[in-house]
Amino acid sequence: NPVHCTQGPPGTGKSYLGVQIVHALAIIRKYWMQQNKSVGTPPILVLSYKNHAADEFLSDLLKQMGPALSGNRRYNNGGNYSGQNVQMVRMGNSGDPALAQFSERNLAQQRGDKDVQAKQRQVHELQDLRRACQRAQRSAALFQAYQADMFDTTSAALGTDGLGPDEIRKRQNDAAYEATEVLFAAIVRSHLLRAFASSQQLESIGSVMNQDANNDHKFKHTQQYGRFIQDDINRSLAMLYHGIQHYIERDASYGDPHELLYMFLSGHHPKPPCSYKGPDQSGCDQIADWHDVPLCRSHRCVLGTGSDRPRCPNIVCPSSKGMLCKEHMCWSEGCDQPRIRIDEVAEDKSSIRRPGAEKYCKFHSCFVCIKLNISPAGEAWDEPPRNVCECHPLCSAMNCLDLALKGEDYCEKHTWKQCEYRNKRGQQCPQWAISSDMPCCQSHVGAWLQQKDIESLGHITANQTSDIDFGHAAALRLNSEKRKCCGTNRKKKPCGGFAMIDSEFCEAHAPKDAGFKAKQAEHEAELQKLQEIELATKRKVADEEREVLEKNADSQDDPAQGMDSSSCTSISEDIDGSAYGAPPDLDNVDLAYYDNLDEAEAGDGLQHIREVFEIESGDDDDDDDEDEFQDALDLLVDGGGKTQRVPTTVAPIKDPKDWSWTLSLDDRWAACQAFMHGQCEELLQIIDMVKSELPLARKKLRDAESRSRARVFENKTVIGGTIVGCITRLESIRATRPFGILVEEASEVLEPLLFACLCQSTVKVQLIGDHLQLQPSLMDKFDFMRINKVNVSMFERLITAPDDHRVPSGVLSVQRRMRRDICDLTRDYYTDIVAIEDHPVCASKILPGPDAHSSFWNGREIPGVRSHLYLWTHSGAQGRADVGISKQNKQEAQMCVNLAYYIVKCGVLKPSIAILTPYKGQLMLIRKLLLSDQSNSRLLTKDPSNSNQVRLSTVDRFQGDEADVVIVSLVVDEKSRTHFVKLQNRMIVLLSRARLGCFILGNTGYFNHTGGAKHWIKTFGILETPPAFSDNTDALIRANVSAMPGITPSIAANTSDDVALATTRKVALTDAKFTEARVGPTFPLCCPQHPLVSCFNAQTAKDLDLGFCQIVCDEVLACSHVCGLKCHWPKKRHNNKCVVLVDSPCVKHPEPLQCIEVYKNTAASKQSPIDEALKHFQCSKKVLVTLPCGHEKEMTCHQEDEIAQGKDQFPQCQRQSPRPYVYPDCGHKINVTCAKFEQYSNDSSCVK
């Protein structure tokens, strides 16, 4: 028959039948090709709905007819196939490693079709180009956001509420780095576009650009490509590179385009190189510290100019050690001090001291000229405080700083006057007057006072005469005479100079610690200290007054309105000492911003950061680059928290070669954004080109693949795969002209899909399936399928067609999967089609595993459960899954997990258990609970290749599979109204997956309400009825006497008829079946070792555990006694401390002994019976034995018997002998032990 349908109820061997049909078709094909060579080599097409089903079918087919599928016919029975001339191909990818060598891809790679590879490469390049362009567009769209992330520090702008300053700065740094990488990648990309566009190989750019998808190394490959075009990038950024050429000469790292772009985006303005030229015309290799002054910190004058006193812009004089320019350096030869600068205005505003008008410093300027406001001041001829010019000589008197009278050596105060006293004759006294205040000599003081009117003196009274220092007056009179210096010159000749006042020597020959110079230096030091204290106090007062004035000025519109000119003058006077100003002190020169003159010698790393980010810092010890970098970013932000940006009206510059350092920060970002926008337009053009060329390239690839597949499929006996895989390769499949098509699980295949797979050359179509199980489905189209009958497959349509249109069909009637009562749940639904019979193998299947085999039923029943078929009801509510719109039931999920753990603990292997549920939400919840266990006893792992774990699946995906034990979670409750679970097809699949045990968990309220599904109600009726039979065979009945009612060991021992005893045991065990309803709110448990007498009903999931059995273990130990412990299944360690009492074989100690004590004191093996152990028993009781020496010693009873029987000797006594040993030669005595006494007595030669 060209078309034939075979229906197979669950477990009837549909896959096995399909393998046999393919084998038969292969034989027919062989003879057909021999008879008719014109047919070529037509293949057999084997199709399935699912990949898993296709893999299982092809694996079974390979095992059955492996030699027929091999050109060299090498195939072993283990299923490992080897051979190069393979006559089977698996379409698509296979999940079975055994079929990997038959996969279409593997065979195609072996052929190495260059045409397909070239077409694939072309398509991949176009796809790479499109992805790269789209990624570049996304990065360009986000580029402008980096500006806000870098410069806007507000939490609202950054979205960083709650973050500290360090976290915000870190985000700003990350934004700066990412913006630099994005801009550099765009520049490199622009060169790529130009290069490949000129060479007409535009699609090849995608292979480079598309490799930048790695988020950990953004634009890595584009940057690597940028190294090959470094020169082109330098030319495209020529103006920027030109502006930092002096930076690059000092540090090559500035030549990196990343560094360049980072500086450009951060708003950096490079400083010019230092323009200093030395005496030999050698230039400075440092970078200027100011933009407006092209000088470094070491070659710019340190003094300030103007009222606000900014730093002088002049170049330092080469001969100056204090870093001063010619304009500010003292003209005195060899002096390195700054000139005097007085900028204050006098009270009458009549004269102004202009900056730079003075020529000398405070030490070499005449202070008299300065006080008299003479500009320029003359050069001083002496050291301070007598620094006066030749026009203003000082008084020669000691400690006097007044000007000398014209033409005199002394001032008016110290000029000598003749005594004014006149005698009666009118003659004037020739002596010198005491002073100008007392114009009389010492002899005529009284007479002079009488002569003059005392009141006319005003300030001199009679009481003040005692205050006159007559000694000092005498000294003045004595010194008024011009005395020669007592010193000698180098030639030992008398000095020709005059002696100083109060000294015998001139100024040149006076000792260091005496004379005018010493006293003047001491006086000057004290005066300097007092001036410093007074000046600090005046400055503090001035600062406080200035703060008050500034506060008043801030509250007014005009800042100058809050200040009084008189107050300003008074402050100036207080600071400088006078309205005209005093000689400025070098320590008070305005060097507040330039106090660190050695800053130019800072470390290279720190200096580099300062140069790039314009950091002014005097702390040479701070080498933390990270802190310096953070401070540099702070310089970009105003104190208010926002960047001061000047709105620009200049058109953005698109071409990077026109970018310059003179652009403002906003203009720079606008230029970059314009460049990005222009590149996006180019990328859009490329994307449009790719969109037009990609469909054509794909069509060429499909044609090449079709030709290649046709060559792969040529000369193959079997082509296997899924329905969808066949449709995608339809042209290649049809080119092979398949003569036979076999479709497994045809009831799940949509009719249009199956029609598409039919070929004109096909002469045989075999459909195998079961339309009462799952039907075809469309994702999320449940109502559409039901109304339009899309869920009716071709298989169902053909097999249910009227008799005059029905195609030949057959039905499989013998099932080999399920035990009898499990099959009864679905057997009646096929009554109208076929009477399903159970194969004898169903009554002999057992669970694998040693623990299951050692249980009471030897693996025939599920250990630990009284009934292998049960519906456990509960009141758990259905809810919505955490993800998606699926359903879940948390209580039921926990019940499933605990039941699976309990069954495994009772001895069932993990791979023998399958957990099924209709909903994916419930599946994910159960999976989550199982994966939460990370112990060694876990049931599920994340490794899919691990075979030692339970299987977890939805009902629909498990069709065609089976398991020894199936746990079903229905999820729904009485409030659910979905028809998904109610479908009869899904129920048949759900109830027909188990071989030996099936446990259903659900809330039956969903099925019992009005309008409930009749098939579910029928199923509940079957489960509510106790089982009427037992399907255990004679070979699997265990003769466990201790567990059979009415049969005791004594009865068994007295029964002589072995046949009658065996019959009695068989009847007892056969009748020991579950006799209650197989549905209820409690789950019936039993001891795996004592299921007939130890039972327990679990109320909740927490009750699913062992430990409820109280029966004593009757396992016979090696000592011939029973274990005696409480049931300890599944632990195999029985009692190792037997305490059964036995009679002691020792006549001296006849007390009963514990069994364990016997084995501790026996020479027999630990595995020997108790009777054998008693024969070799050695009594360990302690007894006192009298030694031959008369002493007593404690030993075991067994040792005494050995000595008495002559098998052993008395032990040596180490106590002192009651008799001393007598030396035979001398007669001396010595005290020894009994052992030594015996030794010396027997052999006197050993006596020492």
Q: What number is the mean pLDDT? A: 75
DSSP, total strands: 25
Count, helices = 40
Q: Between the first and last Cα atoms, what is the distance in angstroms?
A: 119 Å
Placed side by side, the strands forming the largest sheet appear as: 3-4-2-5-6-1-7
Strand content: 5-15%
Question: What order do the helices and strands come in, and which of them pair?
Answer:
Blueprint: E1 3-7, H1 14-35, E2 44-48, H2 51-65, E3 88-90, H3 104-111, H4 114-141, H5 143-151, H6 155-158, H7 165-198, H8 205-209, H9 220-228, H10 230-236, H11 238-243, H12 245-250, H13 257-265, H14 367-371, H15 445-451, H16 454-457, H17 470-479, H18 515-554, H19 565-576, H20 604-613, H21 625-635, H22 665-713, E4 718-722, H23 723-728, H24 730-735, E5 740-744, H25 751-757, E6 764-769, H26 782-788, H27 794-799, E7 809-811, E8 814-815, H28 820-827, E9 837-838, H29 850-853, E10 869-873, E11 879-880, E12 887-888, H30 890-905, E13 913-917, H31 920-931, E14 951-954, E15 963-969, H32 984-991, E16 994-1002, H33 1005-1008, H34 1014-1024, H35 1049-1054, H36 1058-1071, E17 1079-1080, E18 1083-1086, E19 1095-1098, E20 1141-1142, E21 1153-1154, H37 1155-1160, H38 1170-1175, E22 1182-1186, E23 1192-1196, H39 1197-1204, E24 1221-1222, E25 1229-1230, H40 1234-1242
Parallel strand pairs: 1-6, 1-7, 2-4, 2-5, 3-4, 5-6, 8-9, 10-16, 10-17, 13-14, 13-15, 15-16
Antiparallel strand pairs: 11-12, 18-19, 20-21, 22-23, 24-25
